Amino acid sequence: MNRLASGALVLLLALVACADGPREVIAGAEECAHCRMLASDERFTSQLLSERGRHYIFDSIECMVEFLDAEEVLPESDIRSLWVTDFADPGSWVEVAHATFLHSDEIRSPMGMNLSAFESPERAREARDAFGGEILDWEGVRSLVQMQGGDHGHTHGPVHDAAHTPSEAAEHDGDLVVSPDGPIRTLGEALALASDGDRIRVGPGTYREGTLVIDRSIELVGEDWPVLDGESEGSILVVTADDVQIRGFVLRNSGMSHIRDHAAITVEESEGCRIENNRLEDNFFGIFLARAMGCLIRDNRITASGTREATSGNGIHLWDVDRVQVEGNEIRGHRDGIYLEFARGAVIRENRSEDNIRYGLHFMFSDDSFYVNNSFRNNGAGVAVMYSRNVVMSRNRFVDNWGSSAYGLLLKEVQDSLIEDNLFRGNTTAIHSEGSDRLTFRLNQVERNGWAVKILANSQDNLFTMNNFVDNTFDVITNSRRNPNSFEGNHWSQYRGYDLEGDGVGDLAHRPVRLFSLIVQERPAAIVLLRSFFVDILEVAERVLPVLTPETLVDERPLMRAVQGVEPWR
Question: Which of 462, 480, 507 is the last residue of a domain?
């Protein structure tokens, strides 16, 4: 910048400084007069105008209050006016005497006390209705800041015993150590002290600190199961940095909201996180990942006591993620045990998702993923797979998902995928396929279900081969006499043919669609006639001269014995 331009800028700033009202604050360029941090969010900035015309800029409302309380910095007699930004209209200034304030943990201010200001009481009430919290006047704000002091979690400076300096508090074999009776007594304080690459060790005890934001690449380790209690207000841990590790904690009582996805652990736009060996109890959502990649969620126990879908979140929720691995977790009592939407390259392995309100696993628009060796038992509606392609589901257990709308596995508009070596037992419907194409079902054990396979006519070019269908009430049902799918070389316990050649393949083709299954499909109450002599006569006649059942839905090579090599899952 040349000298003429520099001089003009100095003159302009001098003219602004002489104004009677607040001046414009450039976010990220102004330094807070109290904590010397840059004003990063103009929605929360505040100003003090002195009698001499000097402007003091603050990055939050609480910063200005703490500055006012330190009278040795600026006597009250030197203050001309105080101003705050209208949160609903950033850049618009309101004198504090005419402003209405909201204290809400859902509106996070830069320094952590979560205070915002509004030009009118009406705007403040609208924000409270949307985000919750408490409405305050200026005196109420000052009293709140004075009462909470350094305990509200902001990072102006660490709060510690006078006998300890920050450097002394951190001298624990290179780790920051948190304990109720130590030099660092809160996790919020340790997070303020931490730098990238640090480890924070948290000792046993219960910590009630509201929402804690992890914005540095740290390792967070609980020792002897410390409890982070959200007290039913907001999320507990929010991760915004890469390469964060969290293990060894009990996290309970996150907030519940119909408009916010509160979770015990929320990860936002991060890479390389590791969430391992934690206990999550009675949270709205358990673990929530949004726009994350390369993360690992392993060996966590996630339980809740939800009774209704509307007031329950998911145990593990993944949205818009890449290459996330979910391994060895136990999830119970949530809406969906594991939920994925817009996930790419996910690996879901060796989890137990049981006793959930709706689905044990629910994923949509999630391609190129693997689901291996999981247990989905006694969930409200089983497992739902929708609008995905290139999926492999292998060695999973779909067991005891029983109810009027329950499935072991529901497939809707899924393409080019493999369902192999799974156990389907005790489900109302083991496999339901709708609008799904080019799927291969092989080496599955399908036993003791109400309906083994319901495959609608809009599912095409699917192959069922080398599966064992054993002791199901009905093996196959469809809604058309045309069959665009193939059943070849399966074992059917209801097959009544013979093998004169002794090659293990039945000499007669098997028609797995029973006439009575079509009747029950239309008239469910007819199931009471299942074992009647009348039904037996009808079905013999239908096998001899098919009229109603699909002519082309036939297994031409039914196997006389169960397929060897299929994992029996006993």
Answer: 462
Amino acid at 2: N
DSSP 211-279: -EEE-S--EEEESS--EEE-TTSS-SEEE-SSS-EEES-EEE-----SSS--EEEEEES-BS-EEES-E
Specify the amino acid at residue 563: V
Q: Is 166 helix (H, G, I), strand (E, B) or coil?
A: helix
Q: Are residues 135 and 214 in the same domain?
A: no
pTM, entire model: 0.67
Q: Are residues 191 and 254 in the same domain?
A: yes
Question: Are 120 and 174 contained in the same domain?
Answer: no
In terms of residue numbers, what domain contains 402? 170-462
Looking only at the bridges linking them, the beta strands covering 93-95 and 79-85 are antiparallel
- The reply to whether 141 and 174 lie within a common domain is no
| Count of the separate structural domains present in the chain | 3
Q: Are residues 423 and 303 in the same domain?
A: yes
Per residue of the chain (570 residues), what is the pLDDT tens digit? Answer: 444 344 433 333 333 333 457 766 655 546 676 665 556 678 888 888 887 777 788 888 888 888 887 754 567 777 888 999 999 888 789 998 999 999 998 888 877 788 999 999 998 998 888 888 899 999 888 888 887 754 443 333 333 333 333 333 434 446 899 999 989 999 999 999 999 999 999 999 999 999 999 999 999 999 999 999 999 889 999 999 999 999 999 999 998 887 788 999 999 999 999 999 999 999 999 999 999 999 999 999 999 988 888 789 999 999 999 999 999 999 999 999 999 999 999 999 999 999 999 999 999 999 999 999 999 999 999 999 999 999 999 999 999 998 877 899 999 999 999 999 999 999 999 999 999 999 999 999 999 998 899 988 899 999 999 999 999 988 898 877 677 899 999 999 988 888 888 898 988 888 887 554 555 565 565 554 555 554 555 555 556 555 445 566 888 899 989 997 666 444
* Strands 330-332, 301-303: pairing kind: parallel
